[in-house]
């Protein structure tokens, strides 16, 4: 398979995991800002945000992140040295509209992203921008209940209009929401939604998701009105579910779980809810409130491409014998697959699963794909000579790139491949720094100690050669 020269090799980060400067230059609070470190009860706070709001924890890693807000010039220069062609980042909504519902944007926030995008373009690096990456302003949660309230659509569109007009000549590729299907799994992160124990979680999260889908369609329409050359995509937390056995019930359960995954992408790509949506709503006691005109909005404003994250495949079974053998599937539960290796943090490693997922997505939608997150979280050791010999990361990335190439050889159209956390950053799930993904090491530990100095890992040199050879030298 010969990869075209315009293939976008690169890396990805998120504002709320790297920028820091959490209240600087007029920025408001975001969900990540109230989530503590792993030792302080991260999971408790993520899944019970009411506790996080009431409790004062000892340490919040995101408050300083890796100080990308002040070090972006150094970091972009390092990425340019590695040769990347595309850099995915997100814009912090609360940096532009601190409370989410102001009439006028924060100019200092806008200027930061002007400077960041200019720095990328100086090195001929294509900015790939996520508009809302688990980053709904905290004030919108407190005032409206986050995306559970339809009024948030209006605030989001005002935010989008500012971004599209300000950066139309600097940013070509946009994604409306990060991992939109995650709102049903981690509603506070996915949509600023807090659910009390006496409330119907499914009703609230699917309604909030509908509001995001309408907002995404209207944002896509807005972008095309402002500049028809801008490309707008959706973004999915992907990874196909396998049946544990050839028991037809296992096969059917895998189909159902994959339908759950694809439900919202069906809407964004095909312009309507799929036929199986009503069954899902019936099973989960959901009565969707769809206003007049919503169907037409969704139908008329489908996306240009499908971006997705891939860390692992998933596994399911109806057999209760296996039901307790659960591991992490990127916030989605999966059974332990006995044929796969597993990371320290419970992520199963399945490179072939990436090819399978890409084929399934492309066969289903016939839209260009974009791998915008893929990577290995691991503990990296700085050797006595200062080097970081992360051969395990090279091996992981090499095998996944091989499967991307194989999928393209299958006929799958793919815009590019972006590794997650190309520079070490704060883990969204655990709040750790020592769960590292990057080709560039950041001197910071889980307790906030360290100089924040950047160091090139062995994988930095390797990835540079991959890009220089356009994927030929792995």
TrEMBL record:
Its EC number is 3.2.1.86. Keywords: Glycosidase, Hydrolase. The keyword Magnesium does not apply. GO terms for biological process: carbohydrate catabolic process. Pfam families: Glyco_hydro_1. It comes from the Bacteria. GO terms for cellular component: cytosol. GO terms for molecular function: 6-phospho-beta-glucosidase activity. It is an enzyme of class 3 (hydrolase). The active site is at residue 373. Belongs to the glycosyl hydrolase 1 family. This is 6-phospho-beta-glucosidase. It comes from Lachnotalea glycerini.
């Amino acid at each position: 398979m010969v990869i075209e020269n315009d293939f976008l090799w690169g890396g990805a980060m998120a504002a709320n995991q790297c920028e820091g400067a959490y209240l600087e230059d007029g920025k408001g609070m975001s969900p990540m800002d109230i989530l503590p470190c792993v030792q302080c009860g991260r999971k408790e706070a993520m899944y019970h945000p009411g506790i996080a709001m009431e409790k004062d924890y000892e340490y919040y890693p995101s408050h300083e992140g890796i100080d990308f807000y002040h070090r972006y010039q150094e970091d972009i220069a390092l990425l340019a040295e590695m040769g990347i062609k595309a850099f995915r980042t997100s814009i912090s909504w609360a940096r532009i509209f601190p409370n989410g519902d102001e009439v006028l944007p924060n100019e200092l926030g806008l200027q930061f992203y002007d400077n960041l995008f200019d720095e990328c373009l100086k090195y001929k690096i294509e900015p790939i921008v996520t508009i809302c990456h688990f980053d709904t302003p905290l004030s919108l949660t407190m005032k409206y209940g986050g995306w559970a309230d339809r009024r948030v659509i209006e605030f989001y569109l005002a935010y989008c209009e500012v971004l599209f007009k300000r950066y139309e000549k600097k940013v070509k590729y946009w994604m409306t929401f990060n991992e939109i299907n995650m709102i049903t799994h981690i509603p506070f992160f996915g949509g600023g939604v807090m659910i009390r124990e006496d409330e119907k979680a499914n009703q609230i999260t699917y309604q909030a998701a509908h509001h995001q889908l309408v907002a995404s369609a209207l944002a896509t329409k807005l972008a095309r009105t402002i500049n028809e050359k801008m490309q707008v995509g959706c973004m999915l937390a992907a990874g196909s579910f396998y049946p544990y056995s050839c028991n037809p019930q296992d096969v059917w359960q895998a189909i159902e779980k994959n339908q759950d995954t694809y439900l919202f992408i069906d809407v964004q790509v095909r312009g309507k809810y799929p036929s199986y949506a009503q069954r899902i709503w019936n099973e989960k006691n959901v009565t969707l409130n769809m206003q007049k005109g919503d169907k037409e909005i969704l139908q008329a404003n489908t996306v240009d491409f499908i971006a997705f994250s891939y860390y692992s495949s998933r596994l399911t079974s109806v057999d209760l014998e296996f039901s307790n053998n659960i591991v992490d599937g990127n916030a989605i539960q999966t059974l332990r697959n006995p044929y796969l290796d597993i990371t320290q943090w419970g992520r199963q490693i399945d490179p072939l699963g990436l090819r399978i997922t890409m084929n399934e997505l492309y066969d289903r939608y016939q839209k260009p794909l974009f791998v915008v997150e893929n990577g290995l979280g691991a503990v990296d050791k700085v050797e006595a000579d200062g080097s970081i010999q992360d051969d395990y990361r090279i091996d992981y990335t090499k095998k996944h790139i091989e499967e991307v190439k194989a999928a393209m050889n299958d006929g799958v159209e793919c815009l590019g491949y972006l590794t997650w956390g190309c520079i070490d950053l704060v883990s969204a799930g655990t709040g750790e720094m020592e769960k590292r993904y990057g080709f560039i090491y950041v001197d910071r530990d889980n307790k906030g100690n360290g100089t924040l100095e950047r160091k090139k890992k062995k994988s930095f040199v390797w990835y540079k050669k991959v890009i220089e050879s356009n994927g030929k030298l792995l």
